[in-house]
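User:
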Amino acid sequence: MRVPVLEAAAAVRANGGRMTVQRRLILETLNELGGHPTAEEIYRTVRQHDPTLNPSTVYRTLTWLETAGLVSHCHLDAGPDGEHSERYDPVTPVEHHHFVCTGCGIVIEFEAPELAPIKAAFAAEHGARVERAALTLYGVCSACGTPSEMLCLEAD
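Assistant: Predicted structure:
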């Protein structure tokens, strides 16, 4: 899913700002990278096009995109070293969740409609309004392990 540049430009104008060359470059880079890049990955890619760009500009722009409802961030422990990272993702109309392979670090998005009754039950019990849920599963993807190896991992 991509963040529409025109929608972002309209949101910037609605908040009294303007779509600067740097903001557009960061947005286009986020779209180009796809997946769930970190701010550092976005910064490294953007610097190839504009060596004068500061990391703070990338962070401010990502924060602005999140405030505008165009991007969300999630915290994932990815890869074999389990390194914690904040990753960015375009907002989609359908809530999605993540599977992270502890072998290669690949992130797979999936929907989990089964969470709807859990959210509803929580809201009813606590008088709360649940706005969203974040579920992250960790394990070994099919490319990193054979089915028999995966069964052994589950038994541990």
